[in-house]
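hey so i finally got around to running the thing on that chain from the lab meeting. sorry it took forever, my laptop kept dying and i had to restart like 3 times. anyway pasting the input first so we r on the same page abt which one it is
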Amino acid sequence: RSKGSLYLALGLSLFLVYVIMAAQFESLLQPLIIMITIPLAFFGSAVGLYLLGTSISIVVFLGLIVLAGIVVNNAIVLVDYANTLRARGLALREAVVQAGAVRLRPLLMTTLTTVLGLIPMALGLGDGAEIRTPMALTVIFGLTSSTVLTLVVIPTIYYRVMHSRESRMREITEAGDVAGESVPVK
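ok and heres what got predicted. didnt touch it at all, straight out
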Protein backbone atom coordinates (compact mmCIF):
# COMPACT_ATOMS: atom_id res chain seq x y z
CA ARG A 1 0.00 0.00 0.00
CA SER A 2 2.81 2.40 0.84
CA LYS A 3 4.48 1.78 -2.51
CA GLY A 4 1.23 2.54 -4.32
CA SER A 5 0.81 5.75 -2.36
CA LEU A 6 4.36 6.80 -3.18
CA TYR A 7 3.85 6.11 -6.88
CA LEU A 8 0.74 8.28 -6.71
CA ALA A 9 2.62 11.02 -4.84
CA LEU A 10 5.47 10.90 -7.36
CA GLY A 11 3.08 11.08 -10.31
CA LEU A 12 1.11 13.88 -8.70
CA SER A 13 4.26 15.86 -7.96
CA LEU A 14 5.40 15.51 -11.59
CA PHE A 15 1.98 16.61 -12.83
CA LEU A 16 1.91 19.63 -10.52
CA VAL A 17 5.43 20.66 -11.54
CA TYR A 18 4.36 20.48 -15.20
CA VAL A 19 1.17 22.48 -14.62
CA ILE A 20 2.99 25.21 -12.71
CA MET A 21 5.64 25.49 -15.42
CA ALA A 22 3.01 25.52 -18.18
CA ALA A 23 1.33 28.44 -16.45
CA GLN A 24 4.65 30.22 -15.90
CA PHE A 25 5.96 29.78 -19.44
CA GLU A 26 2.51 30.09 -21.05
CA SER A 27 3.49 27.14 -23.20
CA LEU A 28 2.86 23.41 -23.20
CA LEU A 29 6.05 22.59 -25.11
CA GLN A 30 8.76 24.25 -23.04
CA PRO A 31 7.74 22.56 -19.77
CA LEU A 32 8.05 19.22 -21.57
CA ILE A 33 11.60 20.14 -22.54
CA ILE A 34 12.34 21.02 -18.93
CA MET A 35 10.74 17.82 -17.61
CA ILE A 36 13.34 15.78 -19.52
CA THR A 37 15.70 16.53 -16.63
CA ILE A 38 13.67 14.30 -14.33
CA PRO A 39 14.46 11.01 -16.12
CA LEU A 40 18.09 12.13 -16.30
CA ALA A 41 18.07 12.57 -12.53
CA PHE A 42 16.29 9.27 -11.91
CA PHE A 43 18.89 7.54 -14.09
CA GLY A 44 21.70 9.00 -12.01
CA SER A 45 19.98 7.97 -8.79
CA ALA A 46 19.43 4.43 -10.04
CA VAL A 47 23.07 4.05 -11.10
CA GLY A 48 24.37 5.49 -7.83
CA LEU A 49 22.13 3.34 -5.66
CA TYR A 50 23.06 0.26 -7.70
CA LEU A 51 26.79 0.95 -7.39
CA LEU A 52 26.48 1.39 -3.62
CA GLY A 53 24.21 -1.63 -3.23
CA THR A 54 21.39 0.41 -1.71
CA SER A 55 17.97 -1.13 -2.13
CA ILE A 56 14.83 0.75 -3.18
CA SER A 57 12.77 1.74 -0.17
CA ILE A 58 10.16 4.25 0.89
CA VAL A 59 12.91 6.69 1.83
CA VAL A 60 14.40 6.38 -1.67
CA PHE A 61 10.98 7.19 -3.14
CA LEU A 62 10.81 10.26 -0.92
CA GLY A 63 14.23 11.25 -2.24
CA LEU A 64 12.94 10.84 -5.81
CA ILE A 65 9.99 13.11 -5.06
CA VAL A 66 12.32 15.72 -3.60
CA LEU A 67 14.65 15.28 -6.55
CA ALA A 68 11.85 15.84 -9.07
CA GLY A 69 11.25 19.27 -7.58
CA ILE A 70 14.91 20.22 -7.37
CA VAL A 71 16.24 19.16 -10.77
CA VAL A 72 13.79 21.13 -12.86
CA ASN A 73 15.28 24.34 -11.46
CA ASN A 74 18.46 23.97 -13.52
CA ALA A 75 16.55 23.49 -16.74
CA ILE A 76 14.18 26.34 -15.90
CA VAL A 77 17.14 28.66 -15.43
CA LEU A 78 18.59 27.66 -18.83
CA VAL A 79 15.35 27.74 -20.80
CA ASP A 80 14.12 30.96 -19.22
CA TYR A 81 17.37 32.77 -19.93
CA ALA A 82 17.42 31.47 -23.51
CA ASN A 83 13.87 32.79 -23.90
CA THR A 84 14.95 36.15 -22.49
CA LEU A 85 17.85 36.34 -24.94
CA ARG A 86 15.52 35.40 -27.80
CA ALA A 87 13.15 38.19 -26.77
CA ARG A 88 16.11 40.60 -26.92
CA GLY A 89 16.60 39.62 -30.56
CA LEU A 90 19.41 37.06 -30.45
CA ALA A 91 19.34 34.21 -32.93
CA LEU A 92 18.33 30.83 -31.58
CA ARG A 93 21.79 29.27 -31.67
CA GLU A 94 23.45 32.31 -30.09
CA ALA A 95 20.80 32.46 -27.37
CA VAL A 96 21.29 28.79 -26.47
CA VAL A 97 25.08 29.05 -26.38
CA GLN A 98 25.04 32.28 -24.38
CA ALA A 99 22.42 30.95 -21.93
CA GLY A 100 24.61 27.92 -21.25
CA ALA A 101 27.71 30.03 -20.76
CA VAL A 102 26.08 32.68 -18.54
CA ARG A 103 24.10 30.25 -16.39
CA LEU A 104 26.87 27.66 -15.96
CA ARG A 105 28.24 29.11 -12.72
CA PRO A 106 24.87 29.52 -10.95
CA LEU A 107 23.87 25.98 -11.93
CA LEU A 108 27.12 24.50 -10.66
CA MET A 109 27.01 26.53 -7.44
CA THR A 110 23.44 25.49 -6.68
CA THR A 111 24.21 21.83 -7.28
CA LEU A 112 27.44 21.96 -5.31
CA THR A 113 25.86 23.59 -2.26
CA THR A 114 23.01 21.08 -2.24
CA VAL A 115 25.34 18.10 -2.63
CA LEU A 116 27.75 19.38 0.02
CA GLY A 117 24.85 20.01 2.39
CA LEU A 118 23.66 16.43 1.98
CA ILE A 119 27.05 14.77 2.47
CA PRO A 120 26.76 14.50 6.29
CA MET A 121 23.38 12.83 5.87
CA ALA A 122 24.76 10.52 3.17
CA LEU A 123 27.68 9.52 5.39
CA GLY A 124 25.25 8.44 8.08
CA LEU A 125 26.37 10.85 10.78
CA GLY A 126 24.06 11.25 13.75
CA ASP A 127 21.23 9.31 15.34
CA GLY A 128 18.89 7.48 12.99
CA ALA A 129 21.07 8.32 10.01
CA GLU A 130 20.67 4.87 8.47
CA ILE A 131 17.09 5.84 7.67
CA ARG A 132 17.98 9.13 5.97
CA THR A 133 21.12 7.96 4.14
CA PRO A 134 19.32 6.39 1.13
CA MET A 135 17.35 9.60 0.58
CA ALA A 136 20.52 11.71 0.65
CA LEU A 137 22.28 9.33 -1.74
CA THR A 138 19.30 9.42 -4.10
CA VAL A 139 19.31 13.21 -4.20
CA ILE A 140 23.11 13.50 -4.47
CA PHE A 141 23.50 11.07 -7.36
CA GLY A 142 20.38 12.26 -9.13
CA LEU A 143 21.21 15.95 -8.84
CA THR A 144 24.82 15.45 -9.90
CA SER A 145 23.97 13.42 -13.00
CA SER A 146 21.07 15.70 -13.86
CA THR A 147 23.23 18.82 -13.67
CA VAL A 148 25.93 17.38 -15.90
CA LEU A 149 23.44 15.99 -18.43
CA THR A 150 21.21 19.09 -18.27
CA LEU A 151 24.07 21.29 -19.42
CA VAL A 152 24.29 19.20 -22.60
CA VAL A 153 20.90 17.61 -23.24
CA ILE A 154 18.49 20.47 -22.46
CA PRO A 155 20.18 23.09 -24.67
CA THR A 156 20.37 20.53 -27.50
CA ILE A 157 16.71 19.56 -27.23
CA TYR A 158 15.65 23.19 -26.79
CA TYR A 159 17.55 24.18 -29.93
CA ARG A 160 16.15 21.31 -32.01
CA VAL A 161 12.55 21.80 -30.89
CA MET A 162 12.56 25.57 -31.26
CA HIS A 163 14.38 25.35 -34.61
CA SER A 164 11.82 22.92 -36.02
CA ARG A 165 9.00 25.06 -34.63
CA GLU A 166 10.41 28.18 -36.29
CA SER A 167 10.90 26.28 -39.56
CA ARG A 168 7.26 25.16 -39.50
CA MET A 169 6.10 28.71 -38.79
CA ARG A 170 8.16 30.01 -41.74
CA GLU A 171 6.66 27.34 -44.01
CA ILE A 172 3.15 28.28 -42.90
CA THR A 173 3.88 31.97 -43.47
CA GLU A 174 5.36 31.31 -46.91
CA ALA A 175 2.41 29.09 -47.85
CA GLY A 176 0.02 31.86 -46.78
CA ASP A 177 1.97 34.44 -48.79
CA VAL A 178 1.89 32.23 -51.89
CA ALA A 179 -1.86 31.72 -51.55
CA GLY A 180 -2.30 35.48 -51.21
CA GLU A 181 -3.49 35.29 -47.62
CA SER A 182 -2.08 37.10 -44.68
CA VAL A 183 -1.08 34.65 -41.92
CA PRO A 184 -0.16 36.19 -38.58
CA VAL A 185 2.93 34.73 -36.93
CA LYS A 186 3.38 34.72 -33.17
